[in-house]
Amino acid sequence: MLKIDFHDETNSIDEAFVDLIQRVLAFAAEKEGVIGDTEISVTFVNNTQIQELNRNYRQKDKPTDVLSFPMEEPGEEELDIHDEELPRMLGDIVISVDKAEEQAGEYNHSLEREFSFLALHSLLHLLGYDHMEEKEEKEMFQRQEDILHEFGLERS
């Protein structure tokens, strides 16, 4: 079962958004075959806070929409996401509320869809997906769209 620990550093997130993200991420985890006790954290911040994290961890001194901080890196010593032997901490998701609001307007869709997209995108990173190469990017973005579509959150 996926346990999500939410933190709102902006004091602006409605419980309905938290509930939606909880449901989307649990749905996605099930679709990805995540079993056993698995934990993640989701933190909502503003652009200043995410810019500081982006600068410190990625050496990019600008705000971004979402950051993922995996607790486990794929490797021989790591547990498989389908291994239910231990409770596991997958990692942290940090979402910029400012960027999410801005992008929802740019892409002409709801804030609900933008928050869901960003949270799902970050979860997929925690599960090992990446988009550094074109093939990986196509696979990851298609997986995101498939999950959001099946959940019922399509693009406007």
CATH class categorisation: Alpha Beta
How many separate structural domains? Answer: 1
Helix content: 40-55%
Uncertain runs are none
Tell me the radius of gyration.
15 Å
How many DSSP helices?
5
CATH superfamily: Metalloproteases ("zincins"), catalytic domain
Cα shape: globular
How far from one another are the termini? 31 Å
Quick check: average pLDDT? 90
CATH architecture: 3-Layer(aba) Sandwich
Structure description:
The protein is of the alpha/beta class and 156 residues long. The protein has one domain: Metalloproteases ("zincins"), catalytic domain (Collagenase (Catalytic Domain), 3-Layer(aba) Sandwich), CATH 3.40.390. Helices cover 47% and strands 19% of the residues. The chain contains 5 helices and 4 strands. It has a 4-stranded mixed β-sheet. Strand 1 (2-8), helix 1 (15-31) and strand 2 form a beta-alpha-beta unit. Helix 4 (111-126) packs across helix 5 (134-151). The longest helix is centred in the C-terminal third of the chain and has 18 residues, at 134-151. The model has no long low-confidence stretch (mean pLDDT 90). Its cofactor is Zn(2+). Belongs to the endoribonuclease YbeY family. It is an enzyme of class 3 (hydrolase). Its main location: cytoplasm. GO terms for molecular function: metalloendopeptidase activity; RNA endonuclease activity; zinc ion binding.
